TrEMBL record:
GO molecular function list: acyltransferase activity, transferring groups other than amino-acyl groups
Domain annotation N-acetyltransferase: ranges: 4-151
Pfam families: Acetyltransf_10
Recorded coiled-coil stretches: none
Name of the featured protein: Predicted N-acetyltransferase YhbS
InterPro entries noted in UniProt: Acyl_CoA_acyltransferase, Bact_Acetyltransf, GNAT_dom
Protein keywords: Acyltransferase, Transferase
PANTHER family cross-referenced by the UniProt entry: ACETYLTRANSFERASE (PTHR43877:SF1), AMINOALKYLPHOSPHONATE N-ACETYLTRANSFERASE-RELATED-RELATED (PTHR43877)
Amino acid sequence: MGEVTIRPFRPEDGETLSALVVRCLREVNSRDYPAELIDRMCAHFTPDRFRELGSERRIYVAQRDGRVVGTVSRDGNKVYTMFVDPDAHGGGIGRRLMRHIEDLARAEGHEFMETGASITGHGFYRRIGYRDVRVSDTEFGINHILRRPLRR
Ligand SMILES: CC(C)(COP(=O)(O)OP(=O)(O)OC[C@H]1O[C@@H](n2cnc3c(N)ncnc32)[C@H](O)[C@@H]1OP(=O)(O)O)[C@@H](O)C(=O)NCCC(=O)NCCS
């Protein structure tokens, strides 16, 4: 398997990222959430929604062998929409994407990174150095807020 590279989102990625997120939601997150909520999330993450998000936040795309295998986005030190192709789970792509945006946030002077984790993503963030801060409620159910210090 080739090297993983990370690049900024381009509007033409909308379709690919929408399909990747829908696959994650249906194949992985559906183990933790009711079908009604999964349907609502799938309907939310359309190609156009990604293009809109691309103008509000910085979206990053991970590629391997010319294929999109993951995405994450950030607004300053806040993390959003972290998804890795289910076929590539456990291969270090999620950690790689997080380290990429943490480095960028650190270079901007942020003291810590903050993420809102689904039930599904909670163990991942804890594994890569994030610690629980609080629990909040969102339109898509319970969210674990976690932080990781960005020491310089
Ligand atoms: C959560 C997700 C982004 C992780 O991406 P990934 O590329 O599979 O993660 P990595 O391979 O970089 O994992 C890093 C470490 O966390 C561990 N890990 C990954 N997912 C985990 C989970 N759900 N629970 C506990 N540990 C997890 C890995 O085993 C690895 O451990 P290691 O240090 O022993 O090697 C991915 O599983 C995914 O897309 N899930 C579905 C969508 C989702 O829930 N996104 C998060 C929304 S908050």
